[in-house]
Amino acid sequence: MAPKALDYESLNENVKKVQYAVRGELYLRASELQKEGKKIIFTNVGNPHALGQKPLTFPRQVVALCQAPFLLDDPNVGLLFPADAIARAKHYLSMTSGGLGAYSDSRGIPGIRKEVAEFIGRRDEYPSDPELIFLTDGASKGVMQILNTIIRGEGDGVLVPVPQYPLYSAAISLFGGSLVPYYLEETANWGLDVNDLRHAVFQARSKGITVRAMVIINPGNPTGQCLSEANLREILHFCYQENLVLLGDEVYQQNIYQDERPFISARKVLMDMGPPISKEIQLVSFHTVSKGYWGECGQRGGYFEMTNIPPQTVDEIYKVASISLSPNVPAQIFMALMVNPPKPGDISYEQYIRESKGILESLRRRARIMTDGFNSCRNVVCNFTEGAMYSFPQIRLPPKAIDAAKKAGKVPDVFYCLKLLEATGISTVPGSGFGQKEGVFHLRTTILPAEEDMPAIMASFKKFNDEFMDEYDDHRGYSRM
Amino acid sequence: MRRFVIGRAKSLLNRSYQYHCQDQALLRPLAPSHSRFLSSTPGLDSSSTSSASSMAPPVSLDTINPKVLECEYAVRGEIVTLAQRLQDELKAKPGSQPFDEILYCNIGNPQSLGQQPIAFFREVIALCDHPSILDKSETQGLFSADAIERAWQILDQIPGRATGAYSHSQGVKGLRDTIAAGIEARDGFPANPNDIFLTDGASPAVHMMMQLLIRSEKDGMLCPIPQYPLYSASIALHGGSLVPYYLDEATGWGLEISELKKQLEDAKSKGITVRALVVINPGNPTGQVLAEDNQRAIVEFCKQEGLVLLADEVYQENVYVPEKKFHSFKKIARSMGYGEEDICLVSFQSVSKGYYGECGKRGGYMEVTGFSPEVREQIYKVASVNLCSNISGQILASLVMSPPKVGDESYESYSAEKDGILSSLARRAKTLEDAFNNLEGVTCNKAEGAMYLFPRIRLPQKAIKAAEAAKKAPDAFYCQRLLNATGVVVVPGSGFGQVPGTWHFRCTILPQEDKIPAIVSRLTEFHKSFMDEFRD
Question: Disordered: where is this region (chain B) (predicted)?
Fold first, then answer.
């Protein structure tokens, strides 16, 4: 009999190299425990609806009507759906060629891309071209597409922040490229120093790597920091000088919890810089319906917008998109509704605003509760969550704990997080899943558990942590930066 | 004629110039001449920016991944762009063309051509999208009772009833249970929900398998010629080699094991490790439904040669001839006594085809059997990077695999809709097949299943010369003339592969039945005048 066709040994090496901790060891262990009947609080992934956040009413009404257009013919439809939802459903259905069940244009429905462009235009005060906007099944697919277009082989490097959302490291592994890390400075609020960038590029080049692109995540994941306009300018200048395409992951642009640094898009800053630079720096910006106050992760809706990418390259990207035929149509409608929500005067406006504000203000409060809760522990230092959905506290582990981890064959933060999980049911992701400086440990949790559950969760964490420290602390000093 | 085997470019730049110099039907066109607000970088990509570095911009044609340049997908290729331009012209100036409308027969997209969705499925999906109306009394008046019940059942399987949350990366467990039960009911052999990976359509699942299996250009995948070009594109994107096996047009697109063996040996002698065999059943573009003993021989072949069997079964519900029936490869393998230890088998299914035609929803799954736990872990890991497929599509996949049963309130209407669509498809398949066979120099095999016809056109020498002069492949030349004269969009056979020197095109059977007579007469008229012009 012939050898097995698909042995582990004969798999694509790049696949084997991929790591994606967000649904890795901790998550799998948590799922096991859940099956055994333990109550688990999943804070491993930015998945708001899974933790009780309700979907906004208006988009669900519109999409339900689009899914079942026969409702629109029913005289009683007004009993269940407001008139503006009905009108919107008709509006979006008219943009499709055959309703939600037909493949759309591979870039997404033109009318919806136009609404996205208009949104970007209002946000940034510069016009945006719908032809350069591609809707995708979630922002992740868009990121993968763009990285696959850029990466030719391991000689190609992509600058990625550390800590980073591990989609980037996973995608770079999968496509056989090289990840070029640039470290964010925890003591400076996860700030970015251009000198570090230069150094990272220099090191990469000395290894023979051609650095092609730079990823920024703004607001940051897992770190939450919001880049200032000055920061963005520096980054853009840097990309210009080093001939890098800037990949701007801006999926958390609606999640801002401080007022000093509101969200400003990389594109706006680029346009503000004026020609020639504004016509030369290549930029791809990503957005999604999964985050913000919408949290519609399960829909898989996203887009990327290209700036200064040559037409022939756009065509190649279009070609690859066409192989997958089209992004899912219901999510395209979610995206349209997100960029074009109810306006003042619309029947559903007040409810929409009330629901949205409620969610955002609560997120802001939870960001504070969590940060303060972590900082109240003697061995934990936590930067404030300025934006996004996560808290990324630094856990200072005593040498005894690190030894115990080694004995258990685990990385120290994994060891800590597993113990935290077993003791409290809180499922986090160890900092090693995102990258961190050597010898410094973190965990990532989300700020998404219901507000009323937060105090108990933080208390539970503190109790575990203090007991952990009692067990392992010998007051000789902690791991520190 | 496209090269299939060992297609890696020698040099990136050469390839990119070659690619643009050849004017094949397969090429993606230059961007349409819509205005661009932003002045993009000028002209050709190799023009340098005024940045400190004088290198080409990071993302330009000569600096992007060459595999992206290499892959092709004719289904949405050049001819479609031309059609869209004509459609715009027609809209701007009605009467400017010799036809009233463009008819897109290039793509298996039933609902874009008027096919109605299955009402029960849409009812359930709408309720799952907006569950807060489930409690309202008015809902009873607008939705059927069994749709409401099914929605409740599904929502109870979703943690927190949160359809907006990421699910398990393989898909919601309860939905996979339903699908597994559906597979078992279909095949008479058990299915394990943990073998199922729900994906955004079947295509991403195919990509995942290619990614897993292809290590380098030395890894080959046996693919039917003609094939659905997802396979060739995916193999190119992942840097592997396509090893073609030719289906036999003379025997209704038959699949001969001897041909498989021959191509396998041939590839081996060239230093290629053949990893898998792709079989599309029912076939696309060819429409043949494999006979059971054929399937058994294929299973045996894969087992003997240690190949993964990739069974694209997305057209399993599209069978139009009474003498043939769909049998899944899993059923065949199990009925031969072959279990997990004997054969690695991946079956792909989709919500886009069948009688449901829900292309825009992007729902599908792969059922993966015969793999070791370590390999399954890797598949899971890759799936997890994208978190999960869209929930609505997952729900739809479960509905497709467990539709209304006899006795359910919606059963009769569901059944009528389904039978109506399938019988209409069968009629259209026959009408178009006959119409093509009546054209001079054209022969067309029967479409036993799927959604396409793939007629062979014998082009006179004059036509071939005219095509050469126009720098087009002969079948692309014919298809463009057909488009310009009739507004009907079909895909040249070179997009799917064909025996060199033969020409075909793929036409769907999807335009609504009332449009078919007009299509037939326009096509017939066009063909006659084409032959009058070019007859030797």
Answer: 38-58
**Domain B155-400 class in CATH:** alpha beta
**Is the Cβ of A321 closer than 8 Å to some Cβ of chain B?**
no
In chain B, residues with a C-beta closer than 8 Å to the C-beta of A14 are: 211
- How far is it, in rounded angstroms, from Cα A456 to Cα A454? 5
d(CA B9, CA B24): 17
**B307 phi and psi, to 5 degrees?**
-105, 145
In chain B, domain spans: 74-106+421-534, 155-400
CB contact under 8 A, A323 and B112: no
Give the type of residue at B170: Q
CATH, domain range B74-106+421-534: 3.90.1150.10
Contacts of A255 (CB under 8 A, 6+ apart): A219, A291, A292, A293, A360, A363, A387, A388, A389
Q: Which residues of A touch B375 (CB under 8 A)?
A: 6-8, 11
| Residue A163: cis peptide before it, omega within 30 degrees of 0 | yes
Q: Does A244 touch chain B (CB under 8 A)?
A: yes
Provide the pLDDT for residue B55.
Answer: 63
pLDDT tens-digit profile of A370-395? 999 999 999 999 999 999 999 999 99
CB pairs under 8 A between A and B: 355
For residue B72, the model assigns a pLDDT of 87
- Amino acid A4: pLDDT: 67
| Facing residue for B306 by CB, picked from A4, A80, A141 | A4
CB contact under 8 A, B111 and A98: yes
Joined together, the tokens standing for residue B276 give 């898998």
Query: Residue type at B482?
Result: L
**Do B375 and A7 count as a contact with CB atoms less than 8 A apart?**
yes
Do the beta carbons of residue B235 and residue B214 sit within 8 Å?
Answer: yes
Do A104 and B142 make contact, defined as CB atoms within 8 angstroms? Answer: no
Write the residue in A11, A316, A318 that is nearest to B69 by C-beta. Answer: A316
Can you tell me the distance from the alpha carbon of A455 to that of A435, in angstroms, rounded to the nearest whole number? Answer: 29
